[in-house]
Amino acid sequence: MLIYGRNPVLEALREGRVEQVWVARGVEAWLLKELDKLGASYQTVPRIQLDQMVRTTQHQGLVAEITELAYADLEAPFRLAKERGERVLLVVLDGITDPRNYGAIIRSAFALGAHGVVTEERRSAPLSALVMKASAGTASKIPLVQVKNIPRYLEQLKQQGVWVYGTSGKASKTIAELDYQRPLALVIGSEGEGMRRLVAEHCDELARIPLSEGAESLNAAVALGVVLYQAGINRRPK
Prior knowledge:
Blueprint: E1 2-4, H1 6-14, E2 18-24, H2 29-37, E3 42-45, H3 47-54, E4 62-66, H4 76-84, E5 89-94, H5 99-111, E6 116-120, H6 129-134, E7 144-147, H7 150-159, E8 163-167, E9 173-174, E10 184-189, H8 197-201, E11 205-208, H9 220-235
Helix pairs in contact: 5-9
């Protein structure tokens, strides 16, 4: 799998997942020094060759081939939570098909302490180089789980004692009114349509983010960041 962009490639190098690196001629000296420091063996090529390899000019002069990204198993987020000594905190995506949005959500989930990001096979952007770049390399640092059916998965979570909270602009409660001292799954719907009705019906609670008058909605990654920050504040030891 080819990935591109400085943060994703450098992170992959630090993790030892890179098989080959290509660098555009004329990149800054500091970047070459960083590659040398990480022990990267790289080939210097014309920038247009990188454009053709990854079909974009947004590669920042750096492309790498890595071992294929793979989805984690269903229990991976629970194992991570146990290792940290924390109550599980999952992010469940319903209908996020834009790879940039998916990558940005992964980045927020990792930065704000979630233990995994869950998507559905039919209604999600696939793992790709664009997702890796948008996540700034964090797609390999947090369990990414894919399930066949989100409503069924939410029911399975509830049977395991996990509470399911969904975000909805029409909800009467605000996110500040929720109890975060529980094992949790936070459901984020697509920006255009929000959560599907069947997914919303499987949530234990629905809540909204209070917005200024006239504002319609937030980007999905931004909305997730707000909710995860609220959860983090409430989960801190008193």
